[in-house]
Structures are given as C-alpha cells and as structure tokens.
Amino acid sequence: MNEMKILVVEDDRSVSSLITTTLKLNQYNYISAGTGNEAISLCASHHPDLILLDLGLPDIDGIEVIRTIRTWSGAVIIIISARGEDSDKIAALDSGADDYLTKPFSIEELLARIRAAQRRMQYIRAGREENPVFTNGDLSIDYTSRQVTLAGKEVRLTAIEYRLLTLLCANVGKVLTHSYIIDQIWGGGVETDIISLRVYMTSLRKKLKAAQPDFSLIETHIGIGYQMLRIS
C-alpha cells in the first residue's frame, strides 16, 4: 500500500466510485467525503497528503473548502470539476489549489497528476530534511512555512507560482526546458502548454520585482526554458 494519504471529495457517487476504485487498484490509501463540511472535518482529523476536490458540492462551494483548509494544511489540492471556465480555474488556483483537472477526465491523466504530486512532495520533504531554508542573494525560502522573502519583504505567491520558484531554486544554475518544467509542475497534463507556463512565470516575476525592482535571478532562454542564476 502506498504511504500517501488521499482525501476524495466528490458528491456524485458514480464519479466518486470511479476515483476510489482507481485509487484502490493502484494501492493508494484513501478516505472519501461527499460534502464540503465533511471534507474539512476529515482533513483536520486525518491530515491527508493529497486532496482530490470537486468544486460543486451540495453544502458549501469548493472554493470555500480550499480557503478553509489552507488556513492550516499544506496538502496538495487537485481540483476535479466540470467547471471549465478560466475564471473558475483562476479562482481555485488563487485560493490555494495546486492543480486543476476538468471533467470528463481520463484515469491515466488523473494518475499522472497524482504521481506528479508525489514527486513534488518527496522533493519538498527531502529539501526540508537537508536544509529547511534556501537562500540565494536577497531571496529566501522557508520550506517549512512556505514563506518567500526578497530583500526582507514577504512575497505572497499562489501554489503554482511557489512550485515554479522552488523548482528553479532546486536546480539553481541549470537551464530547465519548458517541457521539463511542465512535467514537474503539472505532470505533463494536456491542458497546460508553454503559453500557460509563460503566463505563470510572468506573474511570478512581477511579484518578485514588486519586492525588489532590480530582481534578475530568473533568466529566460528563448525557445528553451528558464534558469535560476546563482548569486555568489
């Protein structure tokens, strides 16, 4: 049995059964909830590593569930929803979700997203054990609290922006290709392309520059990818 604990939050019984059966066949440890309040309660008592969350719940909206859980939990949250509008995706990601999968979805893609989340968690845990704080020039990341500071100022990032930054920091000095970044952050999901990556990277850079206008640690390699420069 896989050690990762997964919380499935889905009120549609057929979809919930499909997801839980898939998890069981792939030897994942899981619990399930059919409402938002039940999900919050189970998250508080069982401390899952990963949450598969539907937004259209019968009692409270999934966005509110994300915001509540994010007040204490750093669990990876993957949205599985029939809402496919960009505004819905942005609202979920800005509220603290890590990934977004639109219904109908393939089992293969769901498993790929879960595996990508596992890799991220393993990387984060390894980084915390080796060194809980990363520094590069005026940039500092506390992996334990997920706090990013630049020139002494706190920089508030969305979940994906934070993962992009920590991925670059984990490979400081290396040029990471677009495809490598997409695979590591989104698990190679078909919904994410280079243009989407550029949008997230632009947003990340904008927030960093707001804290330090002359920030230039992230270098673009046109047609290839991005690199975090090392400040000696």
What is the number of helical segments per DSSP (H or I, 4+ residues)? 8
CA radius of gyration is 18 Å
Low-confidence stretches: none
Question: Biggest sheet: strands side by side, in what order?
Answer: 2-1-3-4-5
Query: What is the rounded distance between the termini?
Result: 44 Å
Helix content: 40-55%
- The total beta strand count reads 12
Shape: globular
| Main beta sheet strand tally, sense and closure | 5 strands, parallel
How large a portion of the residues is in β-strands, by DSSP E? 15-25%
- Element-by-element helix/strand order: EHEHEHEHEHEEEEHEHHEE
- Category by helix and strand content: alpha/beta
Averaged pLDDT: 87
Quick tags:
12 strands, five-stranded parallel beta sheet, 232 residues, alpha/beta, 45% helix, four-stranded antiparallel beta sheet
Write the layout of secondary structure elements.
Blueprint: E1 5-9, H1 13-25, E2 29-33, H2 36-46, E3 50-53, H3 62-69, E4 76-81, H4 86-95, E5 99-102, H5 107-130, E6 133-136, E7 139-142, E8 147-150, E9 153-155, H6 159-170, E10 175-177, H7 178-186, H8 194-211, E11 218-221, E12 225-228
Parallel strand pairs: 1-2, 1-3, 3-4, 4-5
Antiparallel strand pairs: 6-7, 7-8, 8-9, 10-12, 11-12
Write a brief structural summary.
The protein has 232 residues and is an alpha/beta fold. Helices cover 45% and strands 22% of the residues.
